[in-house]
Write a structure and sequence with these properties.
single chain, about 75% helix, about 140 residues, mainly alpha, 4 helices
């Protein structure tokens, strides 16, 4: 594969990942709406369990999409590095992406996204679960 083919495949992967990320953020928006409605309608326990399960699945999907992004970035840098090591001249931008993504020595084999994305999804999950199961302030949902 040449540099152009590697970057073209990488671009297609990034576009696909962006589409999935938008879908995850729409799911999270639906989750926050369901949390608000569960408090307004004083959902029974089984309703709160269902909303909690939907929240867990949405956050898990976000972590998966973030892991795919990390894998795409890592593998693009790895393929560019292999191309460079084979003696082919690559552009400065490709050389910079190799350095930026950690100068990988092998294909991506991890199962977790970057730490900031893990923190983001942990905070979102805690917000959702506290919103579902936590006690509302006095008078917060009275008409």
């Amino acid at each position: 594969m040449n540099e152009f083919e590697i970057l073209t495949i990488s671009q297609a992967q990034f576009q696909q990942n962006a589409t999935y990320t938008i879908a995850i953020f729409i799911l999270l928006a639906i989750n926050f709406y369901l949390v608000r409605r569960s408090r307004e309608l004083n959902f029974p326990t089984y309703g709160k369990v269902m909303v909690s399960f939907f929240s867990l699945i949405s956050v898990y999907g976000g972590i998966q999409v973030a892991t795919f992004l990390r894998g795409f970035q890592h593998n693009t840098a790895y393929n560019l590095k292999k191309l460079k090591e084979s003696g082919v001249s690559i552009s400065e931008a490709s050389d910079a992406s190799i350095e930026f993504f950690g100068n990988p020595t092998g294909p991506f084999s991890g199962a977790l996204p970057d730490t900031p994305q893990l923190i983001f999804y942990a905070v979102v999950l805690s917000m959702l679960l506290v919103g579902i199961w936590g006690k509302a302030p006095e008078g917060a949902y009275t008409k």
